[in-house]
Design goal:
331 residues, alpha/beta, Zinc Finger, Delta Prime, domain 3, elongated, binds zinc ion
């Protein structure tokens, strides 16, 4: 485990403030920039028996426990994994349970194993439901001495005010685009710029997106959006029925790009498909385009429900293809 190159300055500030760290720190910023890793590294460093300013030693028993995932003075609370991969747009589908919170509250009533710090990393904090948040409040407000809560949030506006008010907030930023692209190249990503654009500049998200099978799915789906009149839309929806959230994310970004292109001539997300976006934007009807975009965006709420994903996706694709006459894609 280690920090990402763009986290050095923030790390320095945190380690210099060791004696003044609050008992609850909320690390917030966009998804995919390494906030979770930063929180874990901070916890490891606080628990380390021989820490330096650079970080945890990596050698002591505490660091080894941490490495093996079984440190007795540490808890990581995340929503329980589901069998299906977490999908974009599938917000609120995975929750931290009340039982998970109660276990941590109970853990903090015991004395620390090492007699030193105890740390709890909770992420993402927006996956705390009302009941789980309420179970946490008292402990979050007055934790035992030498206890630190590290909450991680991609969407702090979705946190309950009662949670927010008990944390000191720390904004975490990602790297500049050039640095992010250079880092991705070091990870053997061949054309990082287009993946970074699609990921809104978040390097870890872009790295996930560089996975070859996903790249192939993306190209296949975007080819369908570029030429909907040549597609069997029902079959296309069938191919993506297990990954409706992913397809929804592409369709929404594609429509964003078409709208943006009409307004400014620019493309934000699919810079490697700029020509197809321009083609789609030519002659489109803004009113119908906006209406379709809003409808499909709002339909994203269904992604967390166990509906028939194929039918849902097919209805979006038909809606999109019907824009075709205006989009100019049917010529
Ligand atoms: Zn150590």
């Amino acid at each position: 485990m280690s920090l990402y190159p763009w986290q050095g300055e923030l790390w320095r500030q945190l380690t210099e403030a060791r004696a003044r760290l609050p008992h609850a720190l909320l690390l917030h910023g966009p998804a995919g920039i390494g906030k979770r890793e930063l929180a874990l590294e901070l916890a490891r460093w606080l628990l380390c028996q021989t820490p330096s300013a650079a970080g945890a030693c990596g050698e002591c028993p505490s660091c080894q426990w941490f490495e093996q995932g079984g440190h007795p003075d540490f808890r990581l609370i995340e929503p329980a994994a589901e069998s299906e991969p977490a999908e974009e747009g599938k917000k609120g589908g995975r929750r931290i349970s009340v039982e998970q919170v109660r276990e941590v509250v109970e853990f903090l009533t015991l004395t620390s194993h090492q007699g030193g710090w105890r740390a709890v990393v909770l992420q993402p904090a927006e996956s705390l439901g009302m009941a789980a948040a309420n179970a946490l409040l008292k402990t979050l407000e007055e934790p035992p001495p030498k206890t630190i809560f590290l909450l991680v949030s991609h969407q702090p506006r979705r946190l309950l005010p009662t949670i927010l008010s008990r944390c000191r907030k720390l904004a975490v930023a990602g790297p500049e685009q050039a640095a992010a692209a250079a880092w991705l190249r070091d990870q053997a990503v061949v054309e990082p710029e287009s993946l970074l654009a699609e990921a809104g500049g978040a390097p870890l998200l872009a790295l996930d997106h560089a996975e070859p099978e996903r790249l192939a799915r993306r190209e296949r789906f975007l080819a369908g959006l570029a030429r909907p009149e040549r597609e069997d839309l029902s079959a296309l929806a069938g191919e993506y029925q297990q990954r409706v959230g992913e397809a929804w994310g592409w369709l929404i970004r594609w429509l964003c790009d078409v709208l943006l292109c009409r307004a400014t001539g620019q493309v934000r997300y699919f810079i490697d498909h700029a020509e197809a976006i321009r083609q789609a934007a030519r002659g489109a009807d803004d009113t119908r385009l906006w209406a379709a975009y809003r409808q499909i965006l709002s339909d994203g709420r269904w992604l967390q429900h166990p509906l028939n994903g194929q039918l849902l996706l097919e209805s979006w694709l038909i809606r999109y293809a019907e824009l075709g006459a205006e989009l100019g894609t049917r010529r």
